[in-house]
Amino acid sequence: MSSEDDVIESVVKLYDGVGLWGHPQIQVNVVPPPTAISIAAAALAARYNENSIWDRYGMSAAQSEVIAIGMLADLIGFDKRKAGGIFTFGGTGCNLYAARIGIEKSDPDAKHTGIRDRIHFFCSDVSHYSIKSSAIWTGVGLNNIKIIPSDDDNSMDVAELKTAMDETVSSGARIGTIFATMGTTDAFGIDPLKEIVKLRDKIQKTVQYKINVHADAVIGWPFLTFRGDKSVRHLSPPLQKEVLSTVSKISELPYADSVGIDFHKTGWSPYLCSAFVVKDKNDLFMLQKLKKEMPYLYHKSGYQPGTFTLESSRPNYAQKALVNMMLMEKEGYETLIVHLLTIADYLREKIVENDHIALLNRHNTAFVTDFRIYPKTKYADEGLLFEKELHDITSEEFTEQINRYNQRIAEHMNIVGTFRVRKLYLVIPEPLFEEIKNSELLKVGDTDLRSELADAALGQEMVTEAAMDIVFTAEYQRTTAKYGERGIRYVHAEAGCATQNVYLQATSLGLGTVVIGAFYDDQVEEIMNIEEEPLYIMPIGGGA
After folding, report:
1. Residue of 204, 222, 282, 375 with fewest CB within 10 Å of its CB?
2. Strand (E) positions, 62-125?
3. How many helices (H) and strands (E) does the chain have?
4. E strands in 152-254
5. What pTM was estimated for this model as a whole?
6. 148 has which bridge partners?
7. Which of 66-80, 255-269, 299-313 has the least mean pLDDT?
8. What is the pLDDT confidence band of residue 443, given thresholds at 50, 70 and 90?
9. Which whole-number Å values give the CA distances from 260 to 179, 333, 422, in the listed order?
């Protein structure tokens, strides 16, 4: 048997290179650092090992859930006396519950008989992919999801929704759940919920069943904490306008039948911690199982969510959310969101100042910044490349090359969370330019630079005569920002390994090469038109 110290030491090693979301140099998706108090709440719940299936197996879990759901219902604008809800396994769980309730409303008693008629789900083309998971796991099927086009602001086109719903009714199928997106992860699209519900009410009068509307607000829900103009008075006027517009749209959440909320995204709690809140708690009871079907449980009264939840084993998710809401209240959440928006706006301003990065969502009140990176190419001095790509002014080949360029930037993140420390540039004769058209290489110039490069390398003729020159470059700040002065050593170590690989490849192909370090750095930078620092030049040609 091992000692605890040995086990802990082994486990801690598993965290080598793992990103810490609270670090100021980490920017990824919507993953906030959890608060210390929510981490403590999670540890406390784990210590008591509660199961939220029944209050007898977790009284603290039951109380935390009831209180937290009540607070959220009040925040949304639901009547707390009629509302209900549970905490579940993420936004996917919220969408799955909404899907199942939609099936029961459109095909009553389907939980006993199974789905007897075709049922359609509706969502926009920028909605979360987990809706597809809901269609798969409920048996509705992917082919029965009706994807509604979105407008330029990424909101669902209600006219298109009406057409699709009318077609469903005419075909004899049934309308299950309409998923309204209230803040997508990237583009932060917000659907016109009030209009959607108004349309639902109109069509519902023509059919003999209820139609469910779910608001997927897992990202956007904190805007409910904003308290009018004073919340944004210190922001720039353009950002104020955008934020208040978002707050106005999110304030339509009370029109939905149910709302999904993620605390592990914009609630500052550890994973997992999501709330599914319903306007009418009877919607949850539609999923209820008979107690006699669970003979060793529920012999006495009490809080018994396990009678209608998907999960039989459900930890105390709610306590993590509860402590954060109690600690920060509306003002705290509002302050955090405003800070995120301020930083995002600053980042976007910096991107706009860069000639090689296109900002894709400048006027979008969200936390995620979308951008596209362009290398220095023959198009570089033309500006607005993204707009030209969008309107097919550039060639399809160019767009595909830029796609691969951006993909490689993402792929070249190494396991410790920093960019690779080097870039390689190939200097080749003009006749070979056409050979790289469909390769994974990105063409950044149209000129054979071997002769100029040789001059910068103290006139070494082999650079001119080589069939190809490889120029190794480095961006030291990317590693020194994380590792300090040690980062310089890491750069050189990796570059050395890379040159060794080139030696091995050249030898296996019967070619010759050598590492050249004698050159004028500033001249190489000017010739290559690069901002990185050159490390080596490796000419490659026929072996001796």
Report:
1. 282
2. 84-88, 119-124
3. 19, 13
4. 174-181, 212-216
5. 0.77
6. 124
7. 299-313
8. low
9. 10, 17, 43
